[in-house]
């Protein structure tokens, strides 16, 4: 933990550019560098539950919501208006409905103080407090380590605060933001209570002794569709099965038609000789075929085209979504027609006739 | 051809208009999405960071130059210039009928006002976000109902002072003085106020967890999946607040968003399987260029302008900060997305720069795997099965539509946040408006030697069986071309055609019969070989439904060598037990193509010319507009003069003068004088074009009318016809809701105070809810009473010869539509003038 803090500091320190005249600009901007730091941590450790205390305009949460590993994302901020205005940028996109995630993600925003003992934030894998502590007044600052380390006690925590040693390089004000209560230098940061993490071993604090009153007010919560939810898993399976069945049917019809055409008139063979610029499907296709060859082939009886479930189950996408053939069968049963013993999907070989 | 053949094939069971009304229904939901015109790119608005203000930004004039087109139309007050309807525009004939509408009352306290403030910052702040954040952080404004776009602030409660000064501080510590100055107090009927109401209702729908796409709001949690076609339909609502005849109303309609559960990569894979390697790139380009795609990760929409086959996801590009990164790494880092196909090409989209001064066009590279297709391709629209599946979901009966609306109103009332939003503004959502319409009397049909009162105005094909048509030139010299595959049906069809002809009074002689190979070229060669100036008609029996056959035949016979032509599909002829009715329909169609007349209705005005104008886009070259103009050239309104032109500008028809003078000359030739009255029905008008119409098209028509005669010129009226409109009407019959009867006119409550307008229901919707047709008289010298104008319009809906029944728009408009459709879809150039006297395009 401690190490992380220091890493963070140095990550920030390392990359500011030369002083040009009066105004310093960081590239990429400082806040981005800090967010990137969190992002890298997420990529590295794959936490499931992540909270951002003092989430502000929810930019960090927005960056994190793309990560597949995260299942719960919580933001807390004291500025409710800001949360109200920014909350929709955390809502699922159209694409999230069309191609749902693997795991369900819930995003929740609370309005309230960062230093509340909120049991809803217990058991998190990562809590980020980016540029938060300098906004706390002395009373809250005193509570902060107790709450964060002692009570919430996440597996990982990242705390960052501006380094006042650089302040002389900025124009005007003594503090960088009017809401800042203090700005520390590296020394102050490392000696302050916040970084004295060791003090709060789990044995010191017994969470049960706190009253679990939650003062934070829920501002927004949304749950992303995912393949863990039965509805979306079913959509995904049926979608894949139907499109594969129709593809197989089309292939069959086309091979028949081609033969038919050749019989009727001696068509010259396609003489296109130009090199195809787009060959990506070859490897994928051959691989597919190899897996599928072992399974029973689709067949035709009268005007009905049958595709054995076993063959469908050999498709990688289907296999990924269903544990076994039985599950495949239950998922698609409502959407497609199965033959009497439930071993194959049936469709008409021709589309129902065009008269209406 | 497909559409055409199908209309014919299905015509037996259903009227073509009823059919089209379903597609209109769909358009409701997908113009904003995709398939149609300008609506597509709007999806990108949904993900703006500052949503509440984003809405405002594009609504208020000035900021980025976009004003809602619909609101622009509302500012065009045409009624004030029409003296005879200034006081009253309602008719009185017909039987009153009680109608329920989809319009909700919106109640405001008396003397309610909206306060508009100008907000300035000192020093001035460039960023709108910052401006908004600073103002919103002030407690003075915190609990007030407000709408703010960065410069203009609207409040429902007046601030204490006329000028309020606040101070704020940016994160950098800069002190900023904010001055809020009262600029206007607006009554609830003012256009600005109405825009604010619309924003408020958008906020409310958002609070009901609905998802904004384009202008409408959808419910993503209850999609209807059409899995076989990889479609996902989101149910939603199109709502808008606006000032109707006497009061403020919220109109709400159910709509569906068609989303495609298919990525561009999947489509390409499918194409690859279908076309094979050799023509794969062309097929991709043909299918994809111009499509709008939706990116999975940021919800933005892009137009595909090109495909770059040389770039792969493993190639690098330069990020904004100048560093190089591969596409694969970028998407992995940024969005945790792993690309599965590393050899896919990239799609290229030209980005429109938001700032006008920046002339440099930027391009975006998109990965096919991450782009969803949006809307329906033209191929999809012509897929009968898919459209049927779609229609089954989207076609709602009046009752279920009403239930959805009631639920929406209920949800708004019950949701605490939504109600709070309404209350802080002082608004109250009331009940649905009901009003009284009138049902016009049905028309009798005038046939050659009898008058026929059809049993059903929706379809009088049965009633016609015993009647002779008005005028049928006999068909003496004609060609019948068929392919070797169609041999067996051709003979029986021919005898059938001759048999049904005689009771109608249509004499069909034996044609010259030519048998050809089943290729488009063979058909064309046969036509070129055998057509001579005496040939009255070329009939082709096609065994395949390929558009290229139809297009090449039509193109040659409409412009290169002008002879009326009729294409028939063998599939249509093979329908069991339908041969007689199909032959009858074809006989009527052929009669019209030869210049014959089928039936008439009584027109009390003795010297009246009616004109229909339609505009649509050419399918090959989207920058070209096809303008069709069809004018009646006899007092009985049974004969027509049809012209069509392709022009570069798409908004206004600028060839009307030529057309109008041509039509007047024709009229003069046949009637030895000019028509006393001319009534023009203009279809194909988009939102926001009303002003251009009034300023450019009406003067063109007026000056051509004035130029054609030295003394008294004809009196002119111009009526804008719209097949799509917000209001829906239902009648209550036996405790359930139904579509209103045919001939229902609504000219109060749901109309607009500044327009001389009315709604007319002239078509049946067997399934689903009927779409009333909206008429707006924008110019009227004739001074007909509203009653007469409405009845005349209704009469004209009886005169479309391709369908023995009522249709949704006046016949001249439908003819013009049919003509532009043929030109835009198939022939892509002007048809020969020699054909102008016949309905060759039916």
Explained architecture:
The complex is a heterodimer of chains A (356) and B (842). Chain A is of the alpha/beta class. Chain A folds into 2 domains: 3-223, Vaccinia Virus protein VP39 (Rossmann fold), CATH 3.40.50; 230-354, no CATH class. Chain A has helices at 2-14, 30-45, 59-64, 80-86, 94-98, 138-152, 186-191, 230-264, 281-293, 309-313, 316-321, 325-332; strands at residues 49-53, 72-77, 106-111, 126-130, 156-160, 217-223, 299-301, 304-308, 337-338, 344-348. In chain A, the strands form 2 sheets. Chain A has a 6-stranded mixed sheet with strand order 5-4-1-2-3-6. Chain A is elongated and about 90 Å long. The model of chain A is unreliable at 1-22, 198-214 and 267-286 (pLDDT under 50). With 842 residues, chain B is α+β, with helices and mostly antiparallel strands. The model of chain B is unreliable at 1-67 (pLDDT under 50). At the A-B interface, helix 4, helix 5 and helix 8 of A face helix 5, strand 11, helix 8, helix 9 and helix 10 of B.
General shape of chain A = elongated
Give the CA-CA distance, first to last residue of chain B: 12 Å
Q: What is the rounded Rg of chain A?
A: 30 Å
Q: Identify the biggest protein-protein contact and residues per side.
A: A-B, 56 and 69 residues
Oligomer type: heterodimer
Catalytic activity (chain A): small RNA 3'-end nucleotide + S-adenosyl-L-methionine = small RNA 3'-end 2'-O-methylnucleotide + S-adenosyl-L-homocysteine + H(+)
Enzyme class (chain A): transferase
Cofactor (chain A): Mg(2+)
Protein name (chain A): Small RNA 2'-O-methyltransferase
């Amino acid at each position: 933990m401690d190490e992380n803090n220091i890493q963070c500091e140095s990550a920030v320190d390392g990359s500011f550019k030369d002083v040009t005249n009066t105004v310093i600009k960081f590239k990429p901007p400082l806040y981005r560098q800090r967010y990137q730091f969190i992002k890298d941590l997420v990529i590295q450790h794959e936490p499931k539950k992540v909270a951002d205390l003092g989430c502000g305009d929810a930019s960090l949460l927005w960056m994190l919501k793309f990560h597949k590993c995260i299942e719960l994302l919580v933001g807390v901020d004291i500025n409710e208006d800001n949360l109200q205005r920014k909350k929709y940028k955390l809502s699922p996109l159209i694409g999230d409905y069309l191609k749902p995630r693997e795991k369900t993600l819930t995003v929740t925003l609370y309005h309230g103080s960062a230093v509340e003992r909120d049991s809803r934030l217990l058991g998190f894998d990562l809590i980020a407090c980016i540029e938060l502590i300098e906004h706390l007044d002395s009373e809250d600052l005193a509570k902060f380590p107790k709450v964060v380390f002692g009570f919430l006690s996440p597996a990982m925590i990242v705390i960052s605060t501006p380094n006042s040693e650089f302040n002389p390089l900025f124009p005007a004000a003594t503090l960088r933001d009017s809401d800042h209560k203090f700005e520390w230098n590296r020394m102050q940061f490392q000696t302050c209570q916040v970084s004295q993490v060791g003090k709060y071993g789990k044995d010191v604090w017994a969470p049960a002794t706190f009253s679990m009153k939650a003062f934070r007010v829920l501002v927004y919560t949304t749950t992303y569709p995912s393949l863990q939810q039965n509805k979306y898993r079913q959509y995904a399976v049926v979608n894949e099965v139907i499109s594969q069945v129709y593809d197989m049917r089309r292939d069959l019809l086309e091979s028949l038609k081609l033969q038919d055409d050749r019989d009727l008139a001696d068509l010259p063979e396609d003489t296109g000789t130009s090199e195809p610029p787009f060959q990506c499907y070859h490897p994928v296709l051959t691989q597919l075929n190899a897996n599928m060859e072992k399974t029973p082939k689709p067949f035709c009886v009268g005007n009905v085209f049958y595709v054995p479930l076993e063959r469908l189950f050999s498709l990688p996408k289907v296999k990924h979504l269903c544990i076994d053939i039985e599950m495949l069968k239950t998922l698609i049963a409502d959407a497609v027609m199965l033959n009497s013993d439930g071993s194959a999907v049936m469709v008409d070989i021709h589309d129902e006739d065009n008269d209406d | 051809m497909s559409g055409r053949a199908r209309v014919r094939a299905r015509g037996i069971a259903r009227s073509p208009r009823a059919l089209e009304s379903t597609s209109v229904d769909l358009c409701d939901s997908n113009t904003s999405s995709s398939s149609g015109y300008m609506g597509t790119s709007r999806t990108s608005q949904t993900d703006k960071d500052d949503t509440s203000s984003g809405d405002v930004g594009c609504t208020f004039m000035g900021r980025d130059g976009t004003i809602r087109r619909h609101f622009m139309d509302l500012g065009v007050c045409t009624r004030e210039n029409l003296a005879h309807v200034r006081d009253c525009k309602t008719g009185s004939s017909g039987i009153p009928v009680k109608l329920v509408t989809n319009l909700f009352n919106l109640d405001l306290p008396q003397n309610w006002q909206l306060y508009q403030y100008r907000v300035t910052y000192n020093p001035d702040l460039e960023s709108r976000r910052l401006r908004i954040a600073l103002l919103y952080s002030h407690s003075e404004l915190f609990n007030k109902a407000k709408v703010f776009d960065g410069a203009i602030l609207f409040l429902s409660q007046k601030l204490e002072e006329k000028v309020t000064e606040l101070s704020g501080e940016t994160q950098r510590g800069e002190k900023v003085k904010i001055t809020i100055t009262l600029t206007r107090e607006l009554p609830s009927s003012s256009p600005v106020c109405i825009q604010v109401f619309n924003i408020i209702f958008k906020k409310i729908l958002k609070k009901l967890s609905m998802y904004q796409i384009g202008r409408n709001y959808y419910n993503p949690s209850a999609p209807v999946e059409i899995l076989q076609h990889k479609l996902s339909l989101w149910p939603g609502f199109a709502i808008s607040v606006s000032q109707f005849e006497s009061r403020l109303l919220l109109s709400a309609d159910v709509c569906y968003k068609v989303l495609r559960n298919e990525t561009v990569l999947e489509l390409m894979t499918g194409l690859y399987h279908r076309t094979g390697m050799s023509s794969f790139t062309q097929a991709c380009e043909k299918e994809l260029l111009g499509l709008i795609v939706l990116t999975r990760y940021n919800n933005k929409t892009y137009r595909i302008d090109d495909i770059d086959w040389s770039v792969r996801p493993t190639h690098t590009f330069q990020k904004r900060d100048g560093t190089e990164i591969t596409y694969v790494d970028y998407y992995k880092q940024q969005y945790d997305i792993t690309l599965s196909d590393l050899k896919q090409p990239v799609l290229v989209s030209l980005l429109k720069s938001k700032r006008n001064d920046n002339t440099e066009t930027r391009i975006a590279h998109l990965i096919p795997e991450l782009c969803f297709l949006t809307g329906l391709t033209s191929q999809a629209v012509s897929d009968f099965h898919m459209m049927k599946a779609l229609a089954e979901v989207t076609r709602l009966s009046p009752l279920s539509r009403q239930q959805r609306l009631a639920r929406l109103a209920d949800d708004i009332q019950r949701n605490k946040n939504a109600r709070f939003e309404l209350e802080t503004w002082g608004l109250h959502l009331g009940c649905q408006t009901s009003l009284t319409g009138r049902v016009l009397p049905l028309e009798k049909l005038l046939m050659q030697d009898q008058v026929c009162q059809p049993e059903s105005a929706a379809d009088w094909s049965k009633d016609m069986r015993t009647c002779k048509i008005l005028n049928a030139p006999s068909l003496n010299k004609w060609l019948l071309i068929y392919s070797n595959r169609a041999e067996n049906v051709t003979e029986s069809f021919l005898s059938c055609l001759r048999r049904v002809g005689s009771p109608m009074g249509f004499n069909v002689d034996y044609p010259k019969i030519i048998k050809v190979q089943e290729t488009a070229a063979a058909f064309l060669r046969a036509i070129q070989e055998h057509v001579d100036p005496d040939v009255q008609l070329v009939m082709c029996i096609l065994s395949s439904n390929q558009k290229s056959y139809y297009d090449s035949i039509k193109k040659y016979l409409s412009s290169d060598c002008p002879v009326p032509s009729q294409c028939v599909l063998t599939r249509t002829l093979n329908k069991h037990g339908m041969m007689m009715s199909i032959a009858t329909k074809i006989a009527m169609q052929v009669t019209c193509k030869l210049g014959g007349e089928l039936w008439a209705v009584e027109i009390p005005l003795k010297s009246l010319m009616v004109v229909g104008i339609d505009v649509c886009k050419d399918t090959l070259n989207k920058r070209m507009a096809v303008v069709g103009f069809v004018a009646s050239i006899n007092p009985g309104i049974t004969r027509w003069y049809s012209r069509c032109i392709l022009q570069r500008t798409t908004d206004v028809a600028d060839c009307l003068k030529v057309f109008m003078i041509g039509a007047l000359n024709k009229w003069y030739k046949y009637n030895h004088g000019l028509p006393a009255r001319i009534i023009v029905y203009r279809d194909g008008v988009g939102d926001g074009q009303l002003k251009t119409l009034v300023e450019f098209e009406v003067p063109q028509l007026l000056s051509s009318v004035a130029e054609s005669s030295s003394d008294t010129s004809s009196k002119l009226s111009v009526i804008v016809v719209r097949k799509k409109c917000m209001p829906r009407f239902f009648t209550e019959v036996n405790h359930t809701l139904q579509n209103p009867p045919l001939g229902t006119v609504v000219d109060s409550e749901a109309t607009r105070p500044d327009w001389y307008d009315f709604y007319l229901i002239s078509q049946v919707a067997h399934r689903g809810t009927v779409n009333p047709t909206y008429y707006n008289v924008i110019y009227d010298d004739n001074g007909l009473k509203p009653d007469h104008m409405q009845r005349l319009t209704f009469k004209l809906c009886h005169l479309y010869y391709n369908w023995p029944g009522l249709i949704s728009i006046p016949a001249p408009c439908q003819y013009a539509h049919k003509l532009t459709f043929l030109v835009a879809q198939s022939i892509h150039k002007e048809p020969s003038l020699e054909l102008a006297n016949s309905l060759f395009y039916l």
